[in-house]
Design brief:
The complex is a heterodimer of chains A (about 110) and B (about 120).
Chain A (H helix, E strand, L loop, with lengths): L3 E3 L2 E5 L4 E6 L6 E7 L6 E6 L5 E4 L2 E6 L4 E6 L8 E8 L10 E2 L3 E6 L1
Parallel strand pairs in A: 2-11
Antiparallel strand pairs in A: 1-3, 3-8, 4-5, 4-9, 6-7, 7-8, 9-10, 9-11
Chain B lengths: L4 E3 L2 E4 L5 E6 L6 E8 L3 E9 L2 E4 L8 E7 L2 E6 L8 E8 L11 E2 L3 E5 L1
The chains are: A mainly beta (about 110), B mainly beta (about 120).
């Protein structure tokens, strides 16, 4: 079952912060985050394996609440290069495996100068 | 190192024609995935292979779709006959997952944009 992402789209100015949420109705073992720029392939950002774990990638970090079956992606002091569509992918089994990875519908992030 | 290589990048064909999409995964990766991306349905997993063996093809939409992986460095996705609703971007991705020691990162190719008229 496809995870639900919110918001569907967000527009912000350079330097502002944004939060993208991902929730699932199924029990989660792992959450993967990818960013896709227009006309390009999705690019891996990070994976979260344990409940409550937070990871960071430059000024992009994420949290994973296993009990609530939710993950949030935090973009701090956004840069123009952050523009793109962000996807969360959820896995239900095994240790961080990409097997049975189901992607959300994406959140389109636009950073304006 | 070369990434995942897909061909063709763009394909325009007429309804009823056979379409073959090709993928070369990253050397050493033992998982290969075929995804389809459309505006309506987003990124959908079609099929994946582990060590050249198809593991889960439950995402393949219908019998018109077939995928093979004859060796560790090559995979094909075939649509026969093609229909306009097959128009999409088809991504191939590879990954190396061994036990719990890998991030599970998917490396995507540039995609093959298919238009069926």
């Amino acid at each position: 079952q496809q995870p639900v992402q919110s918001p569907q789209a967000v527009i912000l100015r350079e330097g502002e912060d944004a939060v993208i949420n991902c929730s699932s109705s199924k029990a989660l073992y792992s959450v993967h985050w990818y960013r896709q720029k227009h006309g390009e392939a999705p690019v891996f950002l990070m994976i979260l394996l344990k409940g409550g774990e937070q990871k960071g990638h430059d000024k992009i970090s994420a949290s994973f609440n296993e009990k609530k079956q939710q993950s949030s992606l935090y973009l701090t002091a956004s840069q123009l290069s952050y523009s793109g569509t962000y996807f969360c992918g959820t896995g239900g089994i095994s240790s961080g495996s990409a097997r049975q990875l189901t992607f959300g519908s994406g959140t389109q992030l636009t950073v304006l100068p | 190192d070369a990434g995942v290589i897909q061909s063709p990048r763009h394909e325009v064909t007429e309804m009823g024609q056979e379409v073959t999409l090709r993928c070369k995964p990253i050397s050493g990766h033992d998982y290969l995935f075929w995804y389809r991306q459309t505006m309506m349905r987003g990124l959908e997993l079609l099929i994946y292979f582990n060590n050249n063996v198809p593991i889960d093809d439950s995402g393949m939409p219908e019998d018109r779709f077939s995928a093979k992986m004859p060796n560790a460095s090559f995979s094909t996705l075939k649509i026969q006959p093609s229909e306009p609703r097959d128009s999409a971007v088809y991504f191939c991705a590879s990954s190396a997952i061994r036990g719990g020691m890998n991030t599970g990162e998917l490396f995507f190719g540039e995609g093959s944009r298919l238009t069926v008229l």
